[in-house]
Write a structure and sequence with these properties.
- This is DUF4432 family protein.
- It is a single chain.
- This protein is mostly beta strands.
- The protein is 7% helix and 44% strand.
- It has three helices and 26 strands.
- The protein has helices at residues 200-203, 278-284, 310-319, and strands at residues 8-14, 17-23, 27-32, 38-44, 49-50, 77-80, 87-88, 96-97, 109-113, 116-122, 128-138, 141-150, 156-158, 161-164, 166-167, 172-175, 182-187, 197-199, 205-206, 214-218, 227-232, 237-242, 250-256, 265-271, 288-290, 295-306.
- The strands form six sheets. It has a nine-stranded antiparallel sheet with strand order 9-10-11-12-26-22-21-16-19.
- Strand 11 and strand 12 form a beta hairpin.
- The radius of gyration is 19 Å and the shape is globular.
- The two termini are 23 Å apart.
């Protein structure tokens, strides 16, 4: 590994839970394997910007499998698999999948390899194992590699989204490619209308003020470009999420101004499956199918910095 991208992995404690921290010169990530592999902290070290919402006054506890996500801490970055909404499995009508899927409420196994952290967990309801590998391709870029293994003799459908509760402590613009001019409202909250298209420029600025409102959008159909991001308009801190759109072809954006959480937060949710319910994704043909005795792999990258976020997009476009 090049000297300028030295990566360090250490272990410690986060709010009484065993934690693992992996960091480059510019970025530090802390995770708790026992809490569904939750990423509890993502810090851009040059500015001290913390991107993840913590549990605040809520107690951080090990959740009960099958329970409702909003009954717990609603902090950090969880993985939603094989569904977001509680629903039937779409494969077996006798299988009822819990809210936000299974993984966030299960302890994960972990392995620290040279400059990487690998965590995995076995589904309790599907013959499937989920694995996530965290690494640093460069000092300002984090890569999360995912793999879902089907151990059965039958195909398995799934839906996946990351569920990062990003903190909003200043006016923050949610960034999308210019070609994605409109987004479909799928949860209206108090002020919008479900099923209506909204010009993104009109609804993409979030304030840290708690209003008690919330809303969710999806891009209507497969995304033309596989990135989204956040930009603090006062500090210049930015975070760009990039996925391969051929494998992760949909995008949701969740904004909560205090309807469910106690502070303002948002989630960028590149998605496998459209949308939120595995049962719905199976019925509309957008769920990913893992063949028998096979696997499916995908990845997500975070580019984090401060200043001109468009330079990151330009570099990405040149590479791709």
């Amino acid at each position: 590994m090049k000297k300028e991208n030295m990566v360090h992995v250490t272990t410690g404690t986060y709010k009484s839970f065993f934690s693992i921290t992996i960091e480059s010169k510019q970025i530090s990530i802390e995770m708790v394997p026992e809490l569904g592999g939750k990423l509890v902290s993502i810090v851009y070290k040059p500015t001290g910007k913390e991107w993840m919402l913590d549990s605040g006054h809520r107690s951080l506890q090990k959740p009960i499998h099958g329970s409702t996500f909003t009954d717990w801490d609603m902090s950090g970055w969880d993985e939603c698999f094989p569904t977001i909404n509680a629903c039937k499995s779409g494969m077996d009508k006798d299988i009822n999948l819990p809210d936000h899927g299974e993984l966030w409420a299960l302890p994960w196994a972990y392995k620290i390899e040279e400059n990487e952290v690998v965590c995995s967990v076995q589904s309790l309801q599907f013959p499937c194992r989920f694995t996530r590998r965290i690494s640093f391709p460069s000092a300002d870029r984090v890569r999360l590699d995912y793999r879902a293994d089907n151990d059965s003799d039958q195909p398995i459908p799934f839906l996946w989204v990351p569920h990062p509760q990003f903190t909003v402590t200043e006016p923050t613009r949610i960034l999308l490619p210019e070609s994605m001019e409109e987004m479909l409202c799928v949860y209206e909250g108090h002020t919008l209308k479900t099923g209506k298209l909204y010009a993104w420029d009109d609804v993409s600025l979030l304030s840290p003020a708690v209003t008690g409102d919330a809303r969710k959008f999806y891009y209507g159909g497969q995304v033309p470009v596989g990135w989204s991001g956040l930009y603090g308009v006062e500090s210049g801190n930015f975070l760009i999420v990039t996925v391969p759109q051929n494998k992760v072809p949909y995008l949701g954006v969740w904004m909560d101004e205090g309807m469910f959480n106690d502070r303002v937060t948002c989630a960028l949710e590149p998605s496998i499956g459209y949308y939120d319910s595995l049962e719905m994704a199976v019925s509309n043909g957008t769920a990913q199918m893992i063949p028998a005795k096979a696997s499916f792999e995908w990845h997500l990258e975070l580019s984090i910095g401060a200043g001109e976020w468009r330079d990151v997009i330009n570099r990405r476009d040149k590479i791709s």
